[in-house]
Amino acid sequence: MGNTYTITGFPGFLANFLVRELCQMPSVEQIYLCVLPDTKHKAEHTLKSITDDLAVTPRITIINTDITDPNLTWDHETYDRVCHDTTHLIHLAAIYDLAVPHDLAFQVNVLGTKHVNTLAEHCDQLTHYLYFSTAFVAGKQQGVIKETELNHDAMFKNHYEQTKYEAEVFVEELKSRVPTTIVRPGIVVGDSLTGETDKFDGPYFLLNSLAKFKYAPILPFIGNGNARANFVPIDYIVNASLHLLHSNRAIGQTFHLTDPRPYHAQEVYTMFAQAFLGKKPRGRLPITLAYTALRLKPIRQWLSIEREALDYFNYDVYFDCQNTLQELKHTNIQCPDFRTYLPHMIDYYMRHQHDPTKHVQIQ
């Protein structure tokens, strides 16, 4: 008998890529996709694009789900069926926006995770629960952060980080009762071969801003540029996560899915400027001046960048990923060098630059 996978967060970017891979794995017999009701149409369209070119696919069921409800808004029959069938549970649903207000982030990221944890405890055939956290649960800590570290009192740069931290604390407690693995991705970007991405956020905010200075005589650096920019392409995240999901050695552990050789922000900014505009930055804009400018909504919207993104220009941290490297050392799964896939990121951005569905609405 094959395995049954229950996945929250579809048709989100990462869930989309995971389902693409799962649909091609012969051991996958059935998939339950937990979908917010108002995204059901998009989920059906996305699923069709995944399965149209496949000769054989698992049984796939879309289930209307709201993880902020203790019972996920499921009736008793649905809850019991999913609990009985599920062998692998993947929790991806979350609010990822850096500018998210606290109450919404808490409802989805913290309470939603508690409700999915409860589901995991009731799945009587569960062999593995994979929870997607973020490397940025480290908050305002700097220096080297190990995969075995979680608890701290260093505060957070935004409500996204804080609520993901609080959620991970609950998942960490679950490890003693449920076969659980936690993964902490860095900043996820597009596919390393195609450049495909869902939204132009994260480092793409830089491209939004650079586009406004195409004809500017001087293109200054922002801040001191010493922070490490930890980007990871979606295909690496998916391949590494699926490997961990099917590894008994990964149970009970936490893994940084981060770049083991990250570039500094100044190097990344230079690479973006040269590849996108053919310009080399010079001069320097104090980070405090950039913060002040982005307090003004018209400027944020003109530049298409969230003010919270600037925090990561001063965030000098190294995410140690020795657990991950050790687990993946006998596979061909490696995080590619940022410089090798940057051209694909730029090319995809330029082809979709004027597609409003790719851009984050700046408030």
SSE topology sketch:
Blueprint (H helix, E strand, L loop, with lengths): L2 E6 L4 H10 L5 E8 L4 H12 L7 E6 L11 H10 L2 E4 L10 H21 L5 E5 L10 E3 L13 H16 L5 E6 L1 E3 L14 H9 L8 E2 L5 E2 L1 E3 H12 L8 E4 L5 E2 H13 L6 E2 L1 H7 L3 H7 L13 E3 L2 H7 L9 H15 L11
Parallel strand pairs: 1-2, 1-4, 2-3, 4-5, 5-7, 6-15, 7-12, 8-11, 9-14
Antiparallel strand pairs: 10-13
At the first level of CATH, the class of the largest domain is: Alpha Beta
- What is the helix tally? 12
CATH architecture type of the largest domain: 3-Layer(aba) Sandwich
Gap from first CA to last CA: 49 Å
Q: Report the order of strands and helices.
A: EHEHEHEHEEHEEHEEEHEEHEHHEHH
The helix content, as a percent range, equals 25-40%
Question: What name does CATH use for the topology of the largest domain?
Answer: Rossmann fold
User: Segments where pLDDT lies below 50 for 5+ residues?
Assistant: none
Domain Thioester reductase (TE): 7-240
Pfam families: NAD_binding_4 (PF07993)
Organism: Alkalibacillus flavidus
Protein name: Thioester reductase-like protein
Describe this structure in words.
The chain has 363 residues and is an alpha/beta fold. The chain folds into two domains: 3-188 and 231-257, 3-Layer(aba) Sandwich (Rossmann fold); 191-230 and 262-317 and 324-357, no CATH class. 38% of the residues lie in helices and 16% in strands. It is built from twelve helices and 15 strands. The strands form five sheets. It has a seven-stranded parallel beta sheet with strand order 3-2-1-4-5-7-12, with helices on both faces. Strands 6-15 form a two-stranded parallel sheet. It is globular, with a radius of gyration of 20 Å.
